[in-house]
Amino acid sequence: MPPTAFTEADPHAAIDQSVAPRPGEIVVTKKRVSAFTGSDLEVVLRSAGIEHLVLTGIATSGVVLSTLRQAADLDYQLTVLSDGCFDPDPEVHQVLVGKVFPRQAEVTTVDDWIAAAG
């Protein structure tokens, strides 16, 4: 693996211009599997008074699971958008969103979450 893999110097880590942050928006650089480990995410969220997180991502069995567990330990209220997550193993994805995540989070779909928020 090249020495720049998974670092800010890795061109694959660049933010796509279609979703680039606006001037003044906070950018948190994810450095480990959990979005919290090695980053200033918790400081950013706490300073903004954020208590409820909505999780999506790739892979359900990696990033989403690790972030959910750490966020639950940090006492955040959690929602997982089941169809906003992906795992290369569909069976693992189903077990996580159907049996594991509901123990620590509300699990819903993107459409149902949008309807409830509207």
| Fraction in beta strands | 15-25%
Low-confidence stretches: none
Helix content: 25-40%
Distance between the termini: 45 Å
The total of helices stands at: 4
Radius of gyration: 15 Å
Describe the structure.
34% of the residues lie in helices and 17% in strands. The chain is of the alpha/beta class and 118 residues long. It has a domain at 50-113. The longest helix has 14 residues, at 60-73. It is globular.
Summarize this structure as a short list of keywords or feature phrases.
alpha/beta; 4 helices; 34% helix
Short description:
The protein has 118 residues and is α/β, with parallel strands linked by helices. It has helices at 41-47, 60-73, 90-100, 110-117, and strands spanning 52-58, 77-86, 106-108. The protein has a domain at 50-113.
Secondary-structure blueprint:
Blueprint: H1 41-47, E1 52-58, H2 60-73, E2 77-86, H3 90-100, E3 106-108, H4 110-117
Parallel strand pairs: 1-2, 2-3
